[in-house]
Amino acid sequence: MPSLAPYKSDLDYGYAPGAFPAMECLLHRPDCARRVLLHSKAEGTEAAQKLTALAEKLHVRVEIADKALSRISGKENCFAAAVFSKFDDALTPGAPHVVLHNPSDQGNVGTILRTALGFGVEDVALIRPCVDVFDPRVVRASMGSLFSLRVKVYDTFEDYQAEHPGRALYPFMLDGSRSLPDVLSGDIPADWTLIFGNEGSGLPASFAHLGQPVRIPSNEKIDSLNLSIAAAIGIYGFTRGSASR
Amino acid sequence: MPSLAPYKSDLDYGYAPGAFPAMECLLHRPDCARRVLLHSKAEGTEAAQKLTALAEKLHVRVEIADKALSRISGKENCFAAAVFSKFDDALTPGAPHVVLHNPSDQGNVGTILRTALGFGVEDVALIRPCVDVFDPRVVRASMGSLFSLRVKVYDTFEDYQAEHPGRALYPFMLDGSRSLPDVLSGDIPADWTLIFGNEGSGLPASFAHLGQPVRIPSNEKIDSLNLSIAAAIGIYGFTRGSASR
């Protein structure tokens, strides 16, 4: 393995910056963990000891690498990171899915991964063009949730549909034909897919003809909800038992 | 007014960076608007024309100020901003409130302001220590929602309580004694206050003795939800009619 470069999408490895995301990498993707980097200032801390202990058990090398940490994270105060091999998963047929169509903000995608995992949705698709899901900003915002999920990137939504045909599709749109509470008051098939569009432009109008378009009722005083907020409200609603919807 | 400095908390004015937030400032706090700054590259665009037309109507000066824009926003691609006098509001008694206790992330606070406004909660308190609500990063993340809300900052939660006694308090805590769907299945008084803690440490344990502590049901695979996500789910739940909860 060559010396560590600032992150680029065409590398076959990525960085999980921060002690918590690095630990999540070792715990949930041990086969992908290549190295653990620690800052000399972190030596002896509880977080560093835990990371080191687990890394040794997994035969993953631990290095003191102050300069590499600041170079790869772009921050002076990054005290730990994991270097991991990128991975590629198939999504689970029959399980709930979240599809992010052309998301452009790393923080939003990471936050949505964290929310999805927290509510038990473990299969996430991204449709290109979209942020690089292995970008350290995504990994950081996900708090390492990326390592507990199955994530797959598709060139087009049609490619996703071809691989997962016949599912119950719910595109979230500002002018969706039914409101979220209304949709949730009815029966929801187990193999649902929630679809969210780009931060600025939302979903293309053609998605209004797919499945059941959903609108989150909000007032006219704001333009729209933040993408990660809309996704959270949708995921929360779909994962609550019907009794509590 | 002296030449425009990079933003600091002790200035008596702030910046609303971006055409949309600047427009929100002119529309909803016209009395506070001091100047509109435009980048020379933005001249002639529809957004600049709208801003200019409204500013002229309000007798607010419009300047081409490329250098000031990059200085105050810290970004090269900020094409418009409003300069506004800071304001101070009393919160509405009897209306729903959101209280943010010691929030430390500007993006989270801005996103929560945007979400609150979108769901019709127009009174927000912050408890110190907390981010400066006039920080341009807050204003930007709020998409200018700040200008449509009543926001008040208190030194302590007790100060908030003294000014707004007898309200129905709902502290959101990881170990809250009732789950959100359970709380929402009962009667909710009109004067509810949702309270959310710091990103890292949550609310102090003593808040478990205030009102009805609420837990958002999520699984053990994540440490916690992002603050702006937890707040959004809480606000959405409390503002849906009981029929759709």
Estimate the strand proportion of chain A: 15-25%
Major sheet attributes of chain A: 5 strands, parallel
Tally of individual helices of chain A: 8
CATH class of the largest domain in chain A: Alpha Beta
The rough form of chain A would be described as: elongated
The number of distinct β-strands of chain A equals 11
- N- to C-terminal distance of chain A: 50 Å
Order of helices and strands of chain A: EHEHEHEEHEHEHEEHEEH
Biggest interface, chains and residues, is: A-B, 36 and 36 residues
Arrangement of strands in the largest sheet of chain A: 7-6-5-10-8
Description:
The structure is a homodimer of 245-residue chains. Chain A has 245 residues and is an alpha/beta fold. Chain A folds into two domains: 73 residues, Ribosomal protein L30/S12 (60s Ribosomal Protein L30, Chain: A, 2-Layer Sandwich), CATH 3.30.1330; 148 residues, SPOUT methyltransferase, trefoil knot domain (Alpha/beta knot, 3-Layer(aba) Sandwich), CATH 3.40.1280. The first copy, chain A, is built from eight helices and eleven strands. In chain A, strands 7-6-5-10-8 form a five-stranded parallel β-sheet. Chain A has a four-stranded mixed β-sheet with strand order 1-4-2-3, with helices on both faces. A two-stranded parallel sheet of chain A has the order 9-11. In chain A, α1 packs parallel to α2 and α4 packs parallel to α8. Chain A is elongated and about 55 Å long. Chains A and B meet through α4, α7 and α8 of A and α4, α7 and α8 of B.
